[in-house]
Amino acid sequence: MEMRAYTPHKQLIGTVFQRWSMFTPLLEVCDSEGASTIRIQGSCCPSRCFSNQQFQIVSNIGEKMGSIWKKWPGFNDDYNMDHEYFGLEVPLGMESHSKLMLLAATFLLNYMFFEMS
Fold first, then answer.
1. What are the record keywords, sorted (predicted)?
2. Could you write out the three-class secondary structure of the chain?
3. Which of 56, 108, 109, 113 makes a 20 to 30 Å CA pair with 98?
4. How confident is the model at residue 104 (pLDDT cuts 50, 70, 90)?
5. pTM (two decimals)
């Protein structure tokens, strides 16, 4: 799977790619030239229900830069579980296009692991 982000003038900002991994989710964020800038690593076998999930954002040299998290909302009165809470925690000084690509990665993670319809 992959997701691309464009400017309003249809210029490519970057791409988020799913990379092969045996047991854990692994995404790679690349700039407009295709150079890898950030990796996103998840925990083993993410589950849609009954648990919170956290994905680590790391640099190419393995330095932790932040996290993407999903909070399971629990059961509500209607037993409607088709809603989640996501968060993106990154340094304040991170470049805006990197933040944009991490937001795109959050949407891709939701689609890949947590959407049921």
1. Calcium, Lipoprotein, Palmitate
2. CEEEEECCCCCEEEEEEECCCCCCCEEEEEECCCCEEEEEEECCCCCCCCCCEEEEEEECCCCEEEEEEEECCCCCCCCCCCCCEEEEECCCCCCHHHHHHHHHHHHHHHHHHHCCC
3. 113
4. very high
5. 0.85
